[in-house]
Write a structure and sequence with these properties.
Blueprint (H helix, E strand, L loop, with lengths): L1 H27 L3 H21 L6 H19 L6 H25 L3 H22 L5 H28 L2 H23 L3 H20 L5
Length: 219
């Protein structure tokens, strides 16, 4: 049964990769429709990948799926390139997704000493990110960005604590790549727009989601 699950997971991972490729081509050509379609195919595929490994059969998996659903909504909202309202909706969706992921990691189990150590590191990381972004944030965006940085920093700290307790490398790498992908989104939105941000941001994002999907197998 598990062998079949991994076979199906591989199939969905390939579909995710194809969606990613289509999205990158759309981004390169400034074709919003093509990019958005590819992105939503890839996002749907990482949810299907988690389901193929039985995510709906455990509490950890079900909470993780809920977080993925919010991320899917975020992907949909962020199809638009220029609407600040949709960007804020996407930001709120991903922020909620990170909060739900934190809940999933708590359900999986954590090491408290590891959480405290990781929290110190991520507080420093968050402060550096906010210092980097601050000159380019208008008054309306400051609070949402602050909240988002707190959420993703907390998510990474919890991922580290869960890894310390259970040794799930996929979960740890998934959290780390998610942080890296969000830096690409922040750079594109607030520092310097360009295809290069999506060229490394989208692959790291979808790899992160697939790794988190894979983490349900070891639960």
């Amino acid at each position: 049964m598990m062998a079949q699950g991994w076979h199906d997971f591989t199939t969905w991972a390939l579909i995710c990769g194809l969606g990613l490729l289509v999205s990158l081509i759309g981004e390169y050509r400034s074709n919003t429709g093509l990019s958005g379609a590819g992105k939503l195919v890839a996002a749907s595929a990482y949810i299907a990948a988690a389901l193929s490994l039985g995510a709906d059969g455990t509490l950890y998996g079900r909470v993780l799926l809920a977080g993925m659903a919010f991320c899917w909504l975020g992907d949909m909202f962020l199809v638009s390139r220029h609407s600040q309202r949709l960007f804020l909706a996407g930001l709120a969706s991903f922020l909620t997704g990170h909060i739900v992921y934190i809940g999933a990691f708590a359900v999986r189990g954590i090491s408290l000493p590891a959480l405290l150590g990781a929290a110190v590191v991520m507080v420093l990381f968050g402060l550096l990110v906010l210092r980097w972004l601050k000159p380019n944030l208008d008054q309306r965006m400051r609070l949402p960005v602050w909240l988002y940085v707190i959420a993703i920093s907390a998510m990474m700290a919890m991922a580290s604590a869960t890894f310390s307790a259970h040794g799930s490398v996929a979960l740890l790498l998934g959290g780390l790549l998610f942080v890296i992908s969000d830096l690409a989104v922040a750079r594109n939105r607030f520092i310097a727009r360009g295809f290069i941000n999506r060229a490394w941001g989208l692959p790291t994002y979808f790899a992160a989601q697939l790794l988190l999907a894979a983490s349900v197998a070891a639960n």
